[in-house]
Amino acid sequence: MLMASTTMAARIERAECGTVLDFATEAQRRGGDVLIHHIGGGVAVFAGPGQPFNKTIGLGFAGAIEPAAFEEIERAFDARGAEIRVELATLADPSVGRSLTQRGYELVGYENVLGLALTGDLVQRLSAAQGAQTADDVRVARTGDEETRAWIETVTDGFGHPDHFDGPPPTESFDRDTLIDVFASSSATPNMALYLARRGGDVAGGGAARISDGVAQLAGASTLPAHRRRGVQTALLRSRLLDAAHCGCDLAVVTTEPASKSQQNVQRAGFSLLYSRAVLIRAPR
Asked: What is the pLDDT of residues 132-145, one digit of tens each?
C-alpha cells in the first residue's frame, strides 16, 4: 500500500500549483483580469466570482509564512471583494494552519488526495485488462482537435448530474456555464491530455490527465447518466494510467470529495488515501 510522506505531499502540491497557474495563465490569455500571487511556496489565484480555480494551494512546505505575506494577499483579494479559499494539506507545516485560523479563516470542509504507484507489475495488469473484450464494449481514446467541443460538453453534462453519496456535501458547486468555461480553459492548457470513452459507438464519458515532474494528475472524469455502472470510469482510468506510465510517470494522483463515488472508484482500482486537504475560507473585508 502506498503511503505518503511530507516529501511526496510537497511534490504533489507543487504539481497542483502548476495546474492552478496553467488555468490562471489561460484565463489571462483570454482577456480575464486574473490575480496571481505567490506566497509561502504556494500560489493564490482569483479570476472572477465563481471560478473553480480561485484558490490558494501549496502552503506549508517552504517554512513558516510571515504575517506580512498574508496581509499582502488579503489586501489584494479584499480590493476585488473576493473571498480567499485555502486548500491546506494535512502534511503541511502545522504553523500555517494556526496562522490561518488566528487570522479568521474558517474551516468549511475537506478533500482527499489519493495516489497509486505506477509500477511495472501494475502496467502489465492494466495492459492485459485493456486487451480483453468487455461485455459493454467500452473503448477509450485520446481526443483529436475536432473532438474538443464534444469532450467539453460530455464532461460538463456528466458533472451536471452528480452521483449521490453518503458523505459531507461538496464545499463548492458550479452552474453549467461556469463548467463549460473552465473545461474549455483546461482543454487549452499545456500538458493536459483529454480522453473520450465510447460505449457501443456512443460517447459515454470523458476524463483528463496532466503530467508534471513524473506525477500524473487525473481529473475531469465524468460519465453520462445513461452509461453509468457499465465500466466507463474503469476504462477511462486504465487508459490514462497506462499513458502516464508510458510517459515516465511513477505516481498517479486524484483529488475527490470525501466518501464520494469518485473516491470509491479509484480505491477499487488500487489507489490509497495519501492525505487530506482542509478547506478554509476568509470572507472579503
From this structure: 655 568 899 999 88
Q: How far apart are CA 83 and CA 281, in angstroms?
A: 7
Residue 19's domain spans which residues?
Answer: 6-114+277-282
- Alpha carbons 103 and 55: distance in angstroms, whole number: 17
Residue in this structure with the C-alpha cell 495563465, named with its chain if needed: 25
Question: Residue 268 carries which side chain, given as an amino acid letter?
Answer: R
Query: Considering the entire predicted model, what is its pTM?
Result: 0.93
Q: Is 1 a domain residue?
A: no
The answer on 124 and 81 residing in a single domain is no
Distance, in Å, from the CA atom of 197 to the CA atom of 213, rounded to the nearest integer, reads 27
